[in-house]
Amino acid sequence: MTRVFSGVKPTGHLTLGNYLGAMRQWAAVDQYRADSLFCVVDLHALTVDHDPARVRRLSRQAATLLLAVGLDPELCTVFVQSHVDEHARLSYVLECVATDGEMRRMIQYKEKAARERERGGSVRLSLLTYPVLMAADILAYGADEVPVGDDQAQHVELTRDLAVRFNQRYGHTFVVPRATVPPVAARVMSLQDPGSKMGKSDDAGPGIVYLLDEPEVVRKKVMRAVTDSGREVVYDREERPGLANLLEILAACTGGNPEALSGVYESYGSLKKDTAEAVVELLRPVQERHRALCADPGYVEGVLRDGAERARAMARPTVDAAYRAIGLLPAVSDTDAGVVLNAAR
Ligand code: TYM
């Protein structure tokens, strides 16, 4: 059976971009057709300046939202990254396969590091090594597919490179995964700055629709979206990015096609109105389930406990195999258990 792994980072409140680019696919498709794991990748939230209490709060909220969008713990594994030591264990070994040049070429590193320096702050070393931890997240589970938005494609590409390199040097250990991105809304842009991604950690609040925004707030944000000069409603990502973004959001919400939808509207106003309503309707059931889950925190904790236990059992053999393959001496108790001695060769 196909194995799927993906995750979301608790650096801010989850957005419409997270939902349309990734989470919706996990809930609507992946959990039914594959052996899937979905993770709140909290270690990744420590790569930039952070407030410990906020990360804890956002981690709990992200886990609750994963369930609210429809992930069913009977069908898939939902857990928190830091509850499973194998991620950090494997990350170090993969750092011994990756190069610093490779890390410095990552677009997200370059952008975030530049932003941090502009603010006069320092760049954490973990921001540089972040993609290796992400590779460890994926490779530890032998995932075949990684459903993500477009912005994560480069990181998955790096993961593939590391898996191939490790396998070539030390013997076949890892499955080489591939990214899967949704056909529409793989990169939802900010409503205020259609040249930039709608990102949860960005400061541009009015340009970001959060999954827990009240309907009135959603309407206001969409109605105030920056569009381009011009009057006709046409779908052109290069020349009319603001309009294209709205058409893509509407298409993703309604199961339509942005190009076809552009022919339906005569004014920006009516397009915005329908887009706002479509987003409100899309989020309504998610928000309702979120409210119900918040009333039962014990349930969410139980899901995360069971999820971590399952995830640990899945990751352990692969990470142990990687340790042996790269030349680390097996611990005696593992030897006794006869765990993958073959991999040590
Ligand atoms: P994160 O937390 O930034 O985003 C979670 C998922 O949402 C997608 N996404 C978007 N898709 C479309 N439009 C947008 N505006 C938008 N914003 C976010 C992301 O592509 C992602 O799929 N590094 C990852 C988390 C991670 C991970 C992993 C993912 C850590 N380890 C292993 C997959 C596998 C991240 O920062 O995602």
TrEMBL record:
PROSITE patterns: AA_TRNA_LIGASE_I. A motif ('KMSKS' region) lies at residues 197-201. L-tryptophan binds at D137. It catalyses: tRNA(Trp) + L-tryptophan + ATP = L-tryptophyl-tRNA(Trp) + AMP + diphosphate + H(+). Its EC number is 6.1.1.2. ATP binds at K9, P10, T11, G17, N18, G149, D150, D151, V188, K197, M198, G199, K200, S201. It holds the Pfam family tRNA-synt_1b. It is found in: Cytoplasm. Keywords: Aminoacyl-tRNA synthetase, ATP-binding, Cytoplasm, Ligase, Nucleotide-binding, Protein biosynthesis. A motif ('HIGH' region) lies at residues 10-18. Coiled coil: none annotated. GO terms for molecular function: tryptophan-tRNA ligase activity. Homodimer. Belongs to the class-I aminoacyl-tRNA synthetase family. Catalyzes the attachment of tryptophan to tRNA(Trp). This is Tryptophan--tRNA ligase.
